[in-house]
Write a structure and sequence with these properties.
Layout: E1 2-6, H1 15-28, E2 32-38, H2 43-47, H3 55-60, H4 66-69, E3 71-72, E4 88-92, H5 101-104, H6 110-115, E5 124-129, H7 135-143, E6 146-151, H8 155-177, E7 184-190, H9 198-211, H10 223-230, H11 235-238, H12 243-261
Parallel strand pairs: 1-5, 1-6, 2-4, 2-5, 6-7
Antiparallel strand pairs: 3-4
The protein binds adenosine-5'-triphosphate and magnesium ion.
């Protein structure tokens, strides 16, 4: 089981979009996937057609069993029309109570300890996080194998990226004490890229010169993403032949390759 976390302390850069598409894409590809909504906004929960509820809060604070907080997502909610899904997708939902988790857990290892129970139940766990840093993020860092940073090619998004990188690095010391290796950066994904603007192109070059191979292919801005989100479907299901869906598959391919090489 690998735990991959989507992070950027700037809001609206594509964390939830990437988290839901990586989770559904990998389930379509045959993996047993769990998407954990760790954002009080509950957007990943809603994106998969679920009602907001305190799943993660119940798990970490009220000591609920996984059985009571896991929600199964029927394959028709995300499958490519008329194609069988070989994997499975579950979600741990979120609501505003997620905001109180940080004040209510005394142990920063709460997430590691609980998610160890799932070791043989899932192949991949994807955490979608809030843009506002909190002690819950700290606890998620301790459980995470790899991080993906979505970022738009704009200054404030880069600033959020730099802050997120600092916080990830700060988590490496307690991880070491606990005998865990440093968190791997799987990739930095430029999102909502406007191919025709000089500003985006220049900023992408800057990102590439700073982070080199870690920067993945930019995902262009396309209306289909927002349209699919509005009806709570991933693009695989909403518009399987669209350019956005081709971009989404490239992302899933890249994650699949990276997962094969994660320690
Ligand atoms: N490539 C894209 N082209 C056009 N719109 C996009 C693209 N990717 C994401 N969007 C849209 O941008 C909006 C913000 O994306 P998303 O909710 O994934 O960001 P986020 O980082 O999770 O935000 P928050 O920090 O608030 O959690 C959404 O409406 C989403 O549908
Ligand atoms: Mg989000």
């Amino acid at each position: 089981m690998k735990i991959v976390t989507l992070l950027n302390e700037k809001g609206g850069v594509g964390k939830t979009t990437l988290a839901t598409h990586i989770a559904t894409g990998m389930a379509i590809r045959g993996l047993r996937v769990l998407l954990v909504d760790a954002d009080p906004q509950g957007h990943a929960t809603v994106a998969l057609g679920l009602p907001k509820e305190p799943g993660l809060y119940d798990l970490l604070v009220r000591d609920a069993t996984f059985k009571t907080v896991l929600r199964f997502i029927p394959t028709k909610a995300y499958q490519i029309p008329n194609q069988t899904v070989t994997g499975q997708l579950f979600v741990i939902p979120s609501n505003v109570e997620t905001r109180n988790i940080a004040n209510s857990i005394s142990d920063s290892f709460a997430v590691v300890e609980r998610f160890r129970e799932l070791e043989n139940a899932f192949d991949l766990v994807v955490f979608d996080t809030s843009p506002t840093p909190s002690l819950l993020h700290g606890s998620i860092y301790l459980a995470t194998d790899s991080v993906i940073y979505p970022t738009t090619c704009e200054y404030l998004s880069f600033d959020g990226l730099v802050e997120s990188i600092k916080h990830r690095q700060a988590a490496d010391a307690p991880r070491q004490q606990w005998g865990l290796s440093a968190i791997e950066v799987m990739g930095i994904v430029p999102t909502m890229f406007r191919t025709k603007t000089i500003e985006h192109s220049e900023n992408l070059k800057q990102l590439q010169s700073q982070f080199g191979e870690l920067v993945w292919e930019a995902i262009p801005q396309r209306t289909i993403w927002a349209e699919a989100a509005a009806i709570r479907r991933p693009v695989f299901n909403f518009a399987p032949e669209s350019a956005a869906t081709k971009d989404a598959w490239k992302l899933v391919d890249r994650v699949q390759e990276a997962l094969a090489s994660v320690r």
